[in-house]
Amino acid sequence: MKYKEQRHRGLHPAAFTYEEWQKIRSVTDSMHHAAKRSERGRNIYEFAGYIACIHCGLPLRCQGHAVTKHLYYRDTAKSRRLPCSNGGELTIRADLATQQFGELLRSLRLPDNWRELIRQQMVTEAQAAGTTPESIEREKERLKLKKTRILKQHREGYIDDEELYGEMAAVELALKHLDAPEVNGVKYEEVVEAGEHLPGMTALWDVATVQERNEMIMILLQPGGLYYDLENKIVAAIKPQPAFLPILRMLSGVVEYDEAKGLLVTERWQDRNRRATASLSPVLTSSFLYQKLQRLLEQISNTAPHSLLPTTKRHPGPKKPRHGIPPEEWPTVLRRVVENQEPLRNVAEDYGVSYETVRRTVLSAQKKAVL
Ligand SMILES: [Zn+2]
Fold this sequence. Notes:
single chain; five-stranded mixed beta sheet; three-stranded antiparallel beta sheet
């Protein structure tokens, strides 16, 4: 597969492709006996490293109950003396999380024309990122003229059949590429492939082994990308891997805000929270994401429904970023460092800046987030 070697702009570890996952499976199958021995001890939590508290953003710790032997995920904020507006020590039964994630997957109903819908969506996004429809049309026109020229050359005997087929195939391929947009380093075909595999994965979910479910999670979600509300015991949001984002957007009952692109918030959690917004004390939570969502929910309840205003008001400030990381990337940097607790060094490397720059960016971004 093509995007195996490709890193998606270094924003996160490279995603597994379905084929890689198959390979992982065959390898784990071949080590079946070796794995079986320690199976009980290891990998019994499919969401390990992937489930996080929506309030503080910290990854939940896996643990078994001493008496009931049930498996749990527990918030670690309190034990780590970090702030969490939810108390920081709530737990969730592991089997409940598994069941709920399965339900979320099953709520996916792909319309018959999903491929076309996704293509249009990606074309729009590619345009927003700078590829204008005019420039594409111009290029298409140029390629069509080239086809005519090749045919003429063939007719007049300047090129033979073999050359004709070769040249025509090259032009057709170029034309196809123009219709197959690429967004955020993910190609249209990769998204289609993801879409084709998802129903199978969904069907497999309930009957899969814990390890298989864990592998599916790694393919579907970004690390820490299952945000859970431990108080209401519901999935609050998911952050899919880029190839799966366009598909998972089609889950029923999820919303995505312009201000938090890539994060799919469940409507159920949103409704619960909107009602609770009024009663929420202005507790300082450490979760940038939660604060952001909270502000969004407030905005929604203050304005007419569905008129989510983009926060276009820019702060008058220096036009050029003083730091080496463009401001639009700050939320990502913040999330990686504060929530995902990635080493600054990794982030610095991805952006080609110094360790110190990342540290300063995080401080600035946090200040900005509070405003
Ligand atoms: Zn928490």
